Inverse folding.
């Protein structure tokens, strides 16, 4: 009978009420080894202890954990797994534990070989220390990648070898994911873990795809696979996500059809690619995946109703997210059938839903309230009109009659055109009208049938989801436009109104201001404090100016913030400032100390609600270039503060995490949602400079089980590339004209637009993404114009408080915003040495040295070249001294902890330190000198410092108003002697004789320090203090050893008595905590 082994851990519970009176301890019993199945399949496993000869085998369901009490850690332990009912053979044994750390290498993976094609899969072994167990281990078996194939097609995958592997490789390892009777996940892996790993895909007869990265979590790809000898390509969608719950170590790669066509019309439909002859039947309520699509920039389809007499529709784009309509005509003389096409993006699949539109819900309605018959048709932007030459019109563009006092429903004849406008013809004179422009348009000057001059007013309104163009006789008293004194005669009117605004100007309206509400705040501070009553960060907003104006025509908002800064208030942080503006002046223009506002926002809403929408004239937001500098310790503290973990689902044995379906999502109509209309919508370009550094202290082990997108980003930054120095994240400006959508729809598209850019930018920095793929058209169906461009944020412009500069209310101006252009369009060496120096400091294997170095670099950043030389020389001297003294101290420390074995380990660590620590000192010298030179060359206006010292919160835990005196005292204590007393709790301080000498009282000792050098003159712990006595000129301290008698000279009576009382209270509290009360 094998022994039943427990791992025992005993710890004092110091926060227990009875601690100090009774041996308050927590004793944890754990299994020495736990095996966790994070694969999508159940498996059998066998674990062998070669040291004792013990053998254990069992069956483990997916998501399950089994404790093992017959195997001990620290022995030579082997593990093998076998997945029943799968093509994989039983694995060879992998070493998961050794008797001595230098005996054999620990295996990080288990190799599985397929019986079908001899392909290999490497499932990973993630070894975790069980928290609070005293050394128990959990071995989690997981697949690095799980591929979910929703295409129903066999897909081949192969790794792209690097140049060295391609030379020595004996062959390609191609694996095939075949569809089965039941959808099942497919395991995939690389031989080694690297952000540079890439995979190529192949479907059927297609060629291999471009190399894809499966590391870029959150990425969505439209993968186009060329078909050999054909002008077609196969399109599939690939999305990369992190596993949920306890499966977060696995990346889930979903391969699905890129385009899915669904017929919800109630009739059979035929479809094909334009200009091809091969068409396909799509029955009612049927869906079909579109794979083979012609190679062209615009992916288009055309449809028709079944039957020889039915004509093919005009082409429509299948990549423009939103709703479009196509007309289906016939030869029977029946009215055209209108088909609504809803294009929805979900994950990596674009769903194209076909449905019949009701007869009373055509997208456009033209209403003629005049006495003139009119003609209209869709303008063809391809044709260059010439007054003296005949034009060739597109045969698909039809001319429609608009009789007097009647209305005609309309839908575009050519919905695939980007710039869609209507050409209105009245008695031979034509006018181009943009139906995306909601509001009162410029009047149309023309002639009547008898040749007399006439004017028709144009107004575009919204009713539900329909746009209505109203044509009414012009009445100057009711119009937003009036005739100017010089009016062209009817004989001077051209056939095409090339100068539409000739003869009109905007009418004068009441622009008086009714009320102004303005708040101006000099400074706002926000303090972030965790549960341990430590201030983590302090956010400062300076120059906050919020102005709300109400005029006869507008509600206007202007919001400026001159300065945004977030300080890292954690002691010992490498980056003392987390967020601050990078360029504080206008392109370095230091004249008159011109500081650009960090945040600017403008919003103007028109008060006229007669057009069926909430009408915004102008929206723009501008954020100046910002620098973000964080270290690993702060990131984990913030994660712990906001508690971003999600419920762990790994303990659910019946969790259906790997089950999936290919059903099309239900699309709900949104016609009843209030529509927002923006004449001008602008998010100006953003640039963030990201710096990240790994610290020697972190909470990674405590937070290892947490799962969230933020945790993934943290893990990616900390586990893959280490330090990042001012990596630029650039986001283009987004400028949209005449955009109309519901609030939820518009915000969702903007979020999708920028989240895709953010994911790409981050993974580009990490080296895990090469290209963004083919983005879909998010705003083409909502607006009349979209532009993306990048210019430096300091060049941005926010409109003034005069929204009428863009036109009066709903009266349109004379040109588009995009055409008018309303908006304006030695360091590296220091970063290199700093990064290498940090890497070498980790090699020293001396935690106290690493801590001192980190604190010194954080607190003593040189602002001048001479200071850099001095501080660099000090770092070099300190490193050399630490290296040679370690030859003696490290063996002694090792012997005290681990006996003879620890002594020899200490000798080894000392020898390593004597080589590496001086090298680190040399690099720190170079880093300080170059940083000092850089800061010398930088203007003083660009020197940014902490806004304030970290807040002091007393031992009573009561949050009080900020005290600068207490904050300074706490700062001195934490920094004195390079952080030697950082674990002490500050209580009080008092100046002695001069401002430079300060008596410091902590929770453990009394000391006298010099604030200028931040050095300690003397310190005495409470255990050495016999008694204290208040004297007329100060406070006398009598020690138990009677070696000497420290005396604090405090001339001010009030300060002396107050400090004496605090010393007395602190000593009594210290003694009462040490002496149990029986």
């Amino acid at each position: 009978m094998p022994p039943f082994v427990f791992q025992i851990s005993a710890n004092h519970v110091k926060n227990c009420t009875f601690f100090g009176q009774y041996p308050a301890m927590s004793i944890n019993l754990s299994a020495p080894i736990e095996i966790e199945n994070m694969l999508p399949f159940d498996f059998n496993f066998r674990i062998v202890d070669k040291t004792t000869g013990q053998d254990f085998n069992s069956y483990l369901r997916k998501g399950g954990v089994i404790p093992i009490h017959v195997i001990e850690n620290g022995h030579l332990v082997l593990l093998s797994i076998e997945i029943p009912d799968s093509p994989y053979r039983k694995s060879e044994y992998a070493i998961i534990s050794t008797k001595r750390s230098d005996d054999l290498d620990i295996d990080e993976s288990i190799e599985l070989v397929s019986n079908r094609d001899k392909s290999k899969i490497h499932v990973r072994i993630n070894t975790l220390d069980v928290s609070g167990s005293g050394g128990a281990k959990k071995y989690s078996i997981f697949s690095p990648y799980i591929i979910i194939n929703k295409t129903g097609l066999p897909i081949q995958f192969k790794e792209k070898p690097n140049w060295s592997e391609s030379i020595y490789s004996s062959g390609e390892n191609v694996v095939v994911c075949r569809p089965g009777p039941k959808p099942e996940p497919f395991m995939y892996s690389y031989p080694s873990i690297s952000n540079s790993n890439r995979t190529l895909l192949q479907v059927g007869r297609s060629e291999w795809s471009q190399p894809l990265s499966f590391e870029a979590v959150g990425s969505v790809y439209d993968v186009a696979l060329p078909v050999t000898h054909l002008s077609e390509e196969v399109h599939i969608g690939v999305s990369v996500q992190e596993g949920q719950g306890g499966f977060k170590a696995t990346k889930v790669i979903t391969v699905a059809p890129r385009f899915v066509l669904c017929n919800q019309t109630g009739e059979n439909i035929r479809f094909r690619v334009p200009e091809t002859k091969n068409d396909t039947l799509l029955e009612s309520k049927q869906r079909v995946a579109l794979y083979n699509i012609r190679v062209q920039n615009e992916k288009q389809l055309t449809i028709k109703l079944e039957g020889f007499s039915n004509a093919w529709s005009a082409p429509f784009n299948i990549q423009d997210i939103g709703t479009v309509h196509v007309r289906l005509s016939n030869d029977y003389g029946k009215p055209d059938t209108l088909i609504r096409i809803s294009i929805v993006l979900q994950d990596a699949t674009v769903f194209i839903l076909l449905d019949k539109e009701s007869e009373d819900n055509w997208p456009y309605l033209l209403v003629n309230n005049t006495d003139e018959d009119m003609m209209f048709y869709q303008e063809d932007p391809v044709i260059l009109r010439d007054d003296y030459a005949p034009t060739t019109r597109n045969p698909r563009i039809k001319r429609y009659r608009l009789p007097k006092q009647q209305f005609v429903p309309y839908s575009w004849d050519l919905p695939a055109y980007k710039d869609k406008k209507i050409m209105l013809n009245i008695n031979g004179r034509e006018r181009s009208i943009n139906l995306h422009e909601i509001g009162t348009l410029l009047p149309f000057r023309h002639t009547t049938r008898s040749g007399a001059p006439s004017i028709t007013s144009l107004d575009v309104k919204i009713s539900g989801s329909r746009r209505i163009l109203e044509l009414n006789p012009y009445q100057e008293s009711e119009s937003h436009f009036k005739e100017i004194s010089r009016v062209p005669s009817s004989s001077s009117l051209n056939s095409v109104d090339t100068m539409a605004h000739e003869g009109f100007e905007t009418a004068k309206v009441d622009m008086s201001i009714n009320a102004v509400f303005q708040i101006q705040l000099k400074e706002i501070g926000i303090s972030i404090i965790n549960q341990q009553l430590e201030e983590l960060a302090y956010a400062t907003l300076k120059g906050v100016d919020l102005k709300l104006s109400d005029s006869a025509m507008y509600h206007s908002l202007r919001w400026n913030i001159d300065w945004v800064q977030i300080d890292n208030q954690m002691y010992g942080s490498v980056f003392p400032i987390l967020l601050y503006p990078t360029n504080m002046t206008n392109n370095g223009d230091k004249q008159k100390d011109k500081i650009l506002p960090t945040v600017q926002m403008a919003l103007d809403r028109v008060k006229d609600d007669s057009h069926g929408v909430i009408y915004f004239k102008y929206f723009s937001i501008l954020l100046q270039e910002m620098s973000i500098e964080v270290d690993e310790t702060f990131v984990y503290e913030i994660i712990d503060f906001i508690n971003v973990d999600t419920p762990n689902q790994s303990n659910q044995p019946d969790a259906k995490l790997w089950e999936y379906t290919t059903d099309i999502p239900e699309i709900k109509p949104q016609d009843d949602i209030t529509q927002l209309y923006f004449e001008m919508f602008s998010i100006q370009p953003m640039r963030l400079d990201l710096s990240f550094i790994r610290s020697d202290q972190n909470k990674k082990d405590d937070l290892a089980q947490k799962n969230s997108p933020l945790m993934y980003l943290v893990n990616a930054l900390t586990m893959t590339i280490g330090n990042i120095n001012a990596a630029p994240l650039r986001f283009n400006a987004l400028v949209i004209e005449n955009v109309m959508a519901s609030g939820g729809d518009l915000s969702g598209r903007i979020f999708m637009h920028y989240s895709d850019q953010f994911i790409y930018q981050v993974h580009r920095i990490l080296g895990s993404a090469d290209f963004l793929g083919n983005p879909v058209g998010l705003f083409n169906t909502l607006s009349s114009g979209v532009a993306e461009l990048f210019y430096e944020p300091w060049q941005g412009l926010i409109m003034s408080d005069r929204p009428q500069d863009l036109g009066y209310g709903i009266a349109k101006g004379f040109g588009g915003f995009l055409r008018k252009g309303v908006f304006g369009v030695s360091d590296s060496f220091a970063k290199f040495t700093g990064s290498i120096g940090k890497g070498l400091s980790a090699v020293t294997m001396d935690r106290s040295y690493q801590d001192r170095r980190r604190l010194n670099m954080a607190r003593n950043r040189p602002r001048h070249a001479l200071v850099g030389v001095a501080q660099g020389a000090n770092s070099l001297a300190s490193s050399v001294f630490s290296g040679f003294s370690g030859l003696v101290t490290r063996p002694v420390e090792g012997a005290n902890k681990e006996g003879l074995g620890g002594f020899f380990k200490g000798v080894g660590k000392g020898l390593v330190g004597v080589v590496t620590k001086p090298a680190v000192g040399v690099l720190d010298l170079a880093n300080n000198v170059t940083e000092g030179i850089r800061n010398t060359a930088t203007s003083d206006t660009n020197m940014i410092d902490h806004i304030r010292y970290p807040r002091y919160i007393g031992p009573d835990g009561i949050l009080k108003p900020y005290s600068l005196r207490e904050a300074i005292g706490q700062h001195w204590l934490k920094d004195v002697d390079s952080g030697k007393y950082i674990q002490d709790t500050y209580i009080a301080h008092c100046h002695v004789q001069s401002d430079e000498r300060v008596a410091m009282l902590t929770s453990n000792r009394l000391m006298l320090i010099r604030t200028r050098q931040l050095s300690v003159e003397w310190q005495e712990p409470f255990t050495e203090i016999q008694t204290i006595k208040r004297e007329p000129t100060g406070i006398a301290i009598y020690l138990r050893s009677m070696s000497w008698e420290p005396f604090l000279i405090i001339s001010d009576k009030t300060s002396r008595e107050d400090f004496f009382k605090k010393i007395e209270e602190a000593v009594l509290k210290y003694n009462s905590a040490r002496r149990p009360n029986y």
